[in-house]
Structures are given as C-alpha cells and as structure tokens.
Automatic annotation (TrEMBL), chain A:
<dbReference type="InterPro" id="IPR011042">
    <property type="entry name" value="6-blade_b-propeller_TolB-like"/>
</dbReference>
<keyword id="KW-0812">Transmembrane</keyword>
<dbReference type="InterPro" id="IPR011659">
    <property type="entry name" value="WD40"/>
</dbReference>
<keyword id="KW-1133">Transmembrane helix</keyword>
<keyword id="KW-0472">Membrane</keyword>
<protein>
    <recommendedName>
        <fullName>TolB-like translocation protein</fullName>
    </recommendedName>
</protein>
<dbReference type="Pfam" id="PF07676">
    <property type="entry name" value="PD40"/>
</dbReference>
<feature type="transmembrane region" description="Helical">
    <location>
        <begin position="6"/>
        <end position="26"/>
    </location>
</feature>
UniProtKB/TrEMBL annotation, chain B:
<dbReference type="InterPro" id="IPR011701">
    <property type="entry name" value="MFS"/>
</dbReference>
<feature type="transmembrane region" description="Helical">
    <location>
        <begin position="53"/>
        <end position="76"/>
    </location>
</feature>
<feature type="region of interest" description="Disordered">
    <location>
        <begin position="1"/>
        <end position="20"/>
    </location>
</feature>
<feature type="transmembrane region" description="Helical">
    <location>
        <begin position="307"/>
        <end position="326"/>
    </location>
</feature>
<dbReference type="Pfam" id="PF07690">
    <property type="entry name" value="MFS_1"/>
</dbReference>
<feature type="compositionally biased region" description="Basic and acidic residues">
    <location>
        <begin position="1"/>
        <end position="17"/>
    </location>
</feature>
<feature type="domain" description="Major facilitator superfamily (MFS) profile">
    <location>
        <begin position="29"/>
        <end position="413"/>
    </location>
</feature>
<dbReference type="GO" id="GO:0005886">
    <property type="term" value="C:plasma membrane"/>
</dbReference>
<feature type="transmembrane region" description="Helical">
    <location>
        <begin position="96"/>
        <end position="125"/>
    </location>
</feature>
Amino acid sequence: MTGRARVVAFVAVVVVLVAAAGFYVLREGREVRAQRAAEPDTAQAPVDAVADGPRIVFRHTGIDAEYGHVAMVGLDDPSGPRAFTDVVCDRVAARASGASCLATERGVATAYTSQQLDADWQVVDDTDLPGIPSRTRLSPDGSLVATTVFVTGHSYMSTGFSTATEVHAFDGGERWGNLEEFQLVVAGEEVDPVDRNVWGVTFADDDRTFYATVATGGRTHLVEGDLQARTLTAVAEDAECPALSPDGSRVAFKVDVDPGRKVVWQIAVLDLATGDRAVLEDGPRGLDDQVEWLDDDTLLYGMPRRDEPGVTDVWSVDAAADATPELLIEQAWSPTVVP
Amino acid sequence: MYISVRDRPGADERAADGTRAARPPVGRAVVLLGIVSLLTDVSSESVSAILPLYLTMVVGLSPVAYGLIDGLYQGVSALVRLGGGWVSDATDRPKWVAFLGYGLSAVARVFLLFASGAAGIAAVVTADRIGKGIRTAPRDAMISTATPTEHLGRAFGVHRMLDTIGAALGPLIAFGLLWAIPDGYSVVLVVSLAFALAGVALLGLLGPDVRPRRDRGARAAGQTGPTPPPFRWRDLGDRRLRPLLVVAGVLGLLTVGDGFIYLALLDHGGVNVTWFPLFYVGTNVAYLFLAVPIGRLADRVGRSRTLVLGHLALVGAYLCSVLPTSTAAATVGTLALLGVFYAATDGVIAAIAGRLVPVQARTSGIAAAQTVVAVARMLASAGFGLLWFLLGPAAAMATVATLLTVAIAGAATRIGRLDRSEVTA
C-alpha cells in the first residue's frame, strides 16, 4: 500500500468507527429513554395502601420509569401490586419508623451518599460516603444505622479493595466510626492485623450487640460486636455478610464453597446456641448479597438475571439444608422486611 | 561538563551521517505514537473509571470478587513486559509487537461487552493488561529509535503529554455518556471500543515500521561495520544498564502509590471524599503540562540527573500531603509536585534505558527498567501499608520521605557515571 492509500484507509476506518459508535449511542440513548419512560409491567398500588400493613421494602429493578426507586409490596402478597416511592437507592433498609438509603449521585465526579428517611420517605439527614454502596442495615427498632461501602482504587495500577463499615445513630447523634478501629479478638486473643476489612453488619435487638464479617490474612470471620465495649470477637470462620434471625437464635451468611481463585458463594446457617452449621446445598449458588430473614424460618436474597443486565429478582428459601429457592418478588433488589 | 561529554556520540554521528542532522527534534513518528496512546488511553481509562460501578450495579458482582480480578494481572504483567521486549528485539519488529499488544486490548473490549460473571470479566481484564504489558516497551523503543539522542527527553515528553491527555479525557467522556444516558454502561463500552480500534488502525496503517537493528545496519553500512548481531540475553547484562536498574529499583522501593498520598491529603480533614477522583485528574493535568518542559530540561542538564533529582519532587509531595498548612495549599502543592515527579521520571527512564544497551537489545533494556520500577513500587506500596498502620499518616510519610532523601543522595553519586555512559544511537 502506498502512503496515500494508507492515509485514505485510516480515514475510512475512522469514518466507519465514528458512524458505528454514533449510531449505537443514539439508538441506545433513544431506547433507554423510551424504556425509562415506560410504566412498570407490574400491578401498582398507592403507597398508603401498602405502607400501613406488614410489608417488604426493596429497590425496584425493572427497566422502566421506576428503575432504582424504592418500592414495597404487602408481606402477604409479595407478587401482588407494588407501591413506588420517589426515593432512588442502590441499597435500602427500612423499619416502621424510617429507612436508610445508600445512593449514587451521577456526575463527572460520581459521589455517594447515605440518607436517613422518615416514615414518609423524606430525607432527615445525609452524609457523604467514601465509596460504592454495598450494604446497609437498621437495628430492629430502627435507632441504629450500619453502612458498608467499597473503597476501590481509582487508578489504572490499583490493586485490591477495601471496605469502610460504619455505625451511627439514626438521629445523627452518636457515631461509632469505622469498625476497623474496634478491638479485634480472635481465639481469645487480642490481635491487631493491618489487613483487616469489616463488612456486612446485622444488629441484635439490644442496641448494643451486632454481628459482622472481618477478613484478615485471606480468611473471613463471623464476629460478634459490642458497641459499648468497642470490640469485635470472632465466633466462627468462613462467614460473610451475616444476618441475624428475628428471634436472635440463628445467623445466616454466605460461604465460599469452592475456595481458591474462583468465588462461589452459598448460604449457610449457624445455630448460635449449639454451634451447628448447615450449608443450604440445594439453595442458590453464586449469590452475592447480604441475606434478610423473612421470618424465623425463611431467608430472602437478591440474584441478578443472567440474560438481563441490571435486572434482579428477590428469591426466598427455607433456612434448611435441603430447601430449594422460590422466586418471591420479580424485578427487585435489597429486600427488607417491615413486620 | 556532562553535557558536552554526553552529547559527543550524537555529534559524532551527525558528522558521519548527513541525513541525521536534518531530522527534527520530535519526529512525526513520535507524535503519531503519542496519538495512538491518546486514543488507547481514552479507551482504557473510560472503562476503568466505570468498571467498579458497572461490576457492582449491573453485573451484580461485589468488589470482593473484583479485588481478586484486579490482583490477577499484577504478576502476569511483569513477565509479559519482558517477553514482549524479547520478541521485539529478536524479530527487530517493535511496531508489530506493539500492534499485537494494542490489538489484544482492543479485542478484550469486545468481549467485555458480553462477559458476565467474575471469571469472564477476570479473563477480559487480564487480557487487557497483558496487551498493555506487551506494547509499552516496543512502543518506547520505537520512540527511542526515531529520535536523535540529544532530543530524547523532549520526544518522550511529547509522547507522555499526549498519552496523559487521553487518560484525562477518558473518565470525562465516560461520565459524560453516563450522565446523558442513565446506566448506559454498554454505550461507554462501545465508545471505548471505537477509540481502541481507531488507535490500532492508526498504528497499523500509518505507524512507521521502525527497525532498530536493520536501520542501524543500513546507516552503518559502508562506514563502520555490518548490521548489529541479533539480540542475546547477555546484552541485557550490559555494564551500563545495571547501575540504572539498581538506582531505579532502590528509588522505586521508596515510591509509594499515589493512593496513599491522596489518602494522606484526605486525612488532612476538610477535604470532601468526593474529591478523591479529582486528585487523580489534578496530578494528570500537572503531568501533561510539565512533560515536555521537563523532558527538554532533561536533554540539557542530563537525563539521569533529572530522573534522580525528580524524586525530590516526590519527597516534596510526601511532606506536602501531611504538612499542617491549609488544605487547599497542601492539595495544590502535592498534586503539582506529583506531576513534576512523573514528568521527570516516567518517560525519562525509558529514554535513558534505550540508550544503555546495544541497539539489538533496546526494547528488552527498556522493558527491564520498567519492570524493575513496577515491581519495586508494588513492594513499596505493600510495605508502606504496614508503616501507615503502625505510625499513622504523618509519621509514615515523614519516614519514607527521609529514607527517599537518603536514597536520592546515594543515587546522586551515580548520576555522573550514568549520564556520561557511552550511548547507543
């Protein structure tokens, strides 16, 4: 090829690329706008009709006008009509008294916030988060908030990840700060590892005790935390994102059943009194969520749809070794039960 | 003193070879390679800016799995870099080895569109990094070969400036698209792919087929001797290269990641965490404005001197990030000093390394220097994490600043010899 022919060929390539990318951007833009303008294909109810009774609050993930909005369904009719709020959250936790919402604010410098909302879904307090929202939980009476975010590297050469998990009072009063600064006790000894990460808090009902995951040295520990003593005490190994049952007797969490390079999480349930531990062998494989208790025997969790990016469903499974999952709420994520 | 001595080989060559004198300081090849890098950096940085969000929000993968992905390529990258250098030297075809590297990264972007699940995305990200590992040294060898020795610093400065413009534009384009099209991650991936393909096409169609060994032979024909012999591993053990590797390795061991410096700035208080990504942009802006002036300065006062003394800017950045001054002053000062540090080191070390080995080992020499720096900095960040935890930000920064100052003083004794080393045109 002569020099001139090469220049012509390059210009042709650029023209084709610009045309193809431009066509795709415009088509996607139009399609996304059309999808985002569409009404949800689920039956709808006014918020008042659902908000008075026992309910499941969640993030709606249908690709429609309500995408990302907090929605709720009646506890007795999870596949029935859903009520949509105006609040947009990546993760949500709710109680009768209010909710905790972790949200992304898009922009040239994307920011993340933690919001506390009252029973009418009005923001009463908000703080900046240092990373991508991952988990949030409220204590049973709604007085304590826990948030976990991922602080990821921001440069091309970055490696690894770290979490930032904080607990504070819902009313914005007391703040216990980053749980990494709590005293860690493993096998009865105080340890002070540099590489610790804490995530996935679940509260007991005494406004003091909680459970969480601590990772250090390539292992994960289930820890029992004490807000007053500022301690984290390891009670079991290989447990991530714990969830304490409403009666406080059992903890459900995810375990990596195939340790090694690939991570395959399954749900396991630990009886705190007896120490008996059961993996839900027929339960979900490859879930990546902090499970939620529907009642003392049933678990909820979100799973992404393989064929529809961005769309997730909430499934339920009995907290028993041989239980099989059932689809509970379509197009939903981050479920939280308000009894 | 050094200047005249160092310049002599270039001057001799000009006398011996009339065509070289006519070459402009920064040739078309350098600018073209710079634009290839610009396009590729727009592509890679637009994806890496949104990747954590994309993985968590769309793929439903938590960064725990993402951390594993990220860790995978670190070791691979160093090996691949050396391998790419060797193939480039053995075949005397740096353009096509670099093309392979750029091409691999572009192909990886196609698969990223369809990848789901941790394993798939890990494979794609790893392929992308392997591509980056393969292409860097051959591309720098092309810049090195296409530029007269006395203008190397400026040429690498021009290339790094264009490269950094791409790195600064990428995230802006990505977040701009996401702002226009909510959750339009696939749009960002497609646009990124288009930029990558444009870069590959530019290199493949218009990139000069630089042949360091053959060109040297052709120039030398009739004057001093035959085409240089093929590459041998022995060339890498060149007595002139070794001191550079030692100096770069020692200084690299005291170069902690930018992330820590930014964290120290955050620790200052009063800085909103949402500024974090902007620190990176600020450093890039300083770097892109300073790359050419400092490259030219390096050509005048000595490149090894610039490389070693450039680390003083890093000492300054360490101290500035923890000094109890106003937050605004600390931020601007730290980012500017980091920009000076990158401008004085990143391109400059490639400029030096390419001239300290025989021409048939040029790519391998550059790859060796870059690998030493990368591995040393990885170790530094790991070690510094410990220091940070034990001493706290201020004391840890002060400690590493002190150690680095001592290391610079030690390295300064080698500057003379390095800058005087006989260079390979």
